[in-house]
Amino acid sequence: MGSICGWSGMGLGPDMSQQTITAMLKACGETDNNKSDSDYDGASALGISKGLYATSHFHQDGIRAAIVGSPTWDDRELSDTATKQGAGAALIKAYRAFGKDLLSRLHGPFALAITDDRQALVAIDRIGIHSLSYALHEGMFVFSTSIGSVVKHPNISRNIDPQAIFNYIYFYDIPSPGTIFTGVEKLQPAQYVQFRDGQLEKGFYWKLHFDEHNQASFQTQKQQFHDLLRHAVATSSRGNSIATFLSGGTDSSTITGVLAELQENPVDSYSIGFGAEGFDEMEYARLAAQRFGATAHEYYLKPDDVLEAIPLIASTYDEPFANESAVPTYFCARQAARDGVKIMLAGDGGDEIFGGNERYAKQMVFEHYGRLPDTLRNYLIEPLANGIPGGDALLPTRKLKSYIRQASVPLPERMESYNFIYRQPLDEMFEPEFLASVNPEIPKEMLQDAYFRADSGHPINRMLHLDMKFTLADNDLRKVSRMCEVAGIEVRYPLLDEALVNFSGQLPINYKIRGQRLRWFFKEALKDLLPRKIITKSKHGFGLPFGVWALSHPPISELVDDSLKKFEGRGFLKTEYIKNIRQQHASEHSTYFGKMIWVMLMLEQWLEVHDTD
Fold it and tell me: pLDDT digit string (tens) for 9-39?
């Protein structure tokens, strides 16, 4: 992936009001390693490292602009400029005319930076397909699409942020705006930061509009959806050597099926299988490939592949990352790259915009309880549940009490009820010194911010908005994009085409979740395209049987033993807690407790690889 690096700050000369710009070319890997940092003073404002994605930079009359991705303009004149002179030239033209308001006219996946002698502006796309990090230190604004490049600046520290460690254990990644390093932040989707007069201005230039009362007919919506879907796939498949990820789920099957309709030659699809009971979904991938006449390429992941991937993941990501399906994603993309594929289409995003996660329907069951009259809940149901002698021994009573207990937790915190952090008091999980250095309420505050910032008052739309940020932008897109990049593949996301995303916001609530039926509209609208068996299957994806293999494959067990012994000395989690997790992993539920083993393992591996104490 191409990258942007730069910094802007007060000069050190006699005139302290003069702004100086220095390029972080060294951090981007574009410079002569024999030169000192001072040799780059006064260089061009932005360093760009060429990568898989289109990059453009332009310098005109003291304004420097750089943009990574596939941006488009809704302004004809700016589109013409981009076509004739490049995206960087169009960016400067828009900046002169509109300032930061240019962002409302810019679309598609991108990260951008603009600097002049007074200020700097950085931003990323509406969905968060691209990323950008920044830091402000003593009047110096440092930014890059790589967190590692930001902390290579001599004025920025590489101190690990304890709060980031806590957030990582909570979320299995480090969600924006935080990063692993103290004082360094990531942009959130559709966010900009403007640096001027030594101060930062932050804001969001877009939010998804939800229309909960759209009265358009199903047929009208269906036709519009099909048109938008075909256009999104057609746009995403421009270029040569195109293939698709195909898990056999609804989204990847849809992308493969539409692409098959659009091109003359058979689609090349790539699928991952697992030699572990309950994990392999190759049956559905084969069903989809057969239905669409695709040329199916299959790879069965082995335990030794996991051993190969662990150090790769630890060294590749800028900060700790514990989505274990990064492993199959990498091997799927690597197989495609070895076959000469250059671009892959991924199905990510469908669940988060059309309502495909089971917890949406589950949470609405709890929401119904909260809407009962207070008198009914407080004077009948709850006294009945708590007043039956020996009620905990009776299954119906035990279930009712569990239901009441969960329903009493408000959204969005209730969505995290499965989280390991809520299984025991925090002082039984974390070392006292570490726990004293963090604010345990921060993750809840982050969830609340995304949930209540939604342009909707309905819990379904608010949960979708939250997941577009935490599940999609902070996690799944980072997983797929980074692993594809390492494999040498450019990945595109047709379901995250802006027109499709905006369309999803206009769907009525019961078109997304209808009772316990997920993605009702999406599945009804595509029932003539997708095999019925795929429409009715439960969600699975590229789940990794790490918990099983950590017990059955000695080399993985040895790696876990060695890494967790070192991790115990980090002072984050109590030794007794780590031992309890390992015991439960071995004796109770290997898959569930294997997730926390993976979280601890990958944190230790990242800290070792990046030489941090």
Answer: 533 222 222 233 333 333 343 333 333 233 2
